[in-house]
Amino acid sequence: TDHGGEFECEPFEKLCDKYGVEHNYSSPRTPQQNGVVERKNRSLEEMSRTMLNEYHLPKSFWVEAMNTACYVINRVHLRREKLKTPYELWK
Question: Lower CB density within 10 Å: C or N end of the chain?
Fold first, then answer.
């Protein structure tokens, strides 16, 4: 991560420990070091914006649109060669 406060707290560290996740930091203000995450975030933002525009919803629905986009992305096959969705791999 890029040293965001939400990733530098005890609850997050405990969650990483619980699941055996090694937490690495990238240099601040260098999104190119975290390309996969940056691209996934862009996809979520684009899906959310599309939902809001398609249904003429106000920006106050942004959080719900982001949650919905995340739900959908985690439950669909994005590549044919993958046999499981991200949700299936995580549970």
Answer: C
